[in-house]
Amino acid sequence: MLMQTRRAPACSHISFQRHGGPFHNCGVKGIHTLTALRRNLPKRRVMPCGCAPLVADAQEQGQAARLGTELAEAGQFQQAAKAFKTHLEHHDKDAQVQEMYAQVLQELERYDEAKEAAGKAVQLQPDWPDALATYARCCLNCGAVREALQAFNTARLLTPADVSIANEAEEAADLYSRQLSLLVGLPLRLLSHAPGSVGAPGGPGSVVWDSGVLLAWYLRHCLHCRELAGAPVVELGSGMGLVGLAAAMCGARAILTDTQEVLPSLTANVAANVEEVLKAGGSATAAMFDWNSTIEGGLPASLELPSDLNCGWILGADLVYSLQQVKPLVAA
Fold this sequence. Notes:
Layout: E1 15-16, E2 23-24, H1 52-73, H2 77-90, H3 95-107, H4 111-124, H5 129-141, H6 145-158, H7 163-184, H8 210-221, E3 232-235, H9 242-248, E4 253-258, H10 263-272, H11 274-279, E5 283-288, E6 313-315, H12 326-331
Parallel strand pairs: 3-4, 3-6, 4-5
Antiparallel strand pairs: 1-2
Helix pairs in contact: 1-2, 2-3, 3-4, 3-5, 4-5, 5-6, 6-7, 8-9
């Protein structure tokens, strides 16, 4: 059973600072700060009389966005949502209003709608950290922990000095780690995950892929750990180390390998799980292995393997994502 996230309580008030300042609410677990930029509404201009209806429409739509902001400031979230929706019926590509609309919907505990609105804001401005953070919080309230973690990590990359986003990213990472532990059935603890896409910070090696989750589950529940107890295991393309650590927690002597760029986070994950691995009678070591750069025999000289490796296991999950990588992998 997957761990469920706690719904965000509605706040007693919401505050927009004038002149484009932050829009705060309590968010998940009462600690989140959401930020939005107020739309700079166009001033009335004198136009030829033939354009008067268009000017009136633009003014009316601009007033709806302004009214929504004022209503949200006053804590009248139901009315604010209606005003923002009216504006978006004519300006659905307004990322700033989509993001504010998402926040108001969260206050109303309309989490699925909030996630949709925040997602639109991110699509319109994918490099806007505030929209990414709002989307992440909406994902948490919908139970989509993986998506939340991806969004938080991307926002963190864009604003490395933002301590609040960094803290929320760590909380999401911890929640996702606990969720994985329940799913796999082992006391795993993974650090610095970035589940999401090949373009995630850290590249594909920083991603917890679904195939890895399934293989870790298989090792625990289908092999029941018996066949792995004491067996030498090498995992290729370990990434965050989920599969290799699962094998080690089944009693295997596991060597988890990946490229030099991924090795620091992989080593950190091995260290974070060493106590549970030892309890299970296994061992885990991180080592560098890049099958795109091999020597005679297919393995780099820096990788030391157990003498009985040829009697052990070689594990891998979702190792390649392009045809160009297949031949080097097979050759290794």
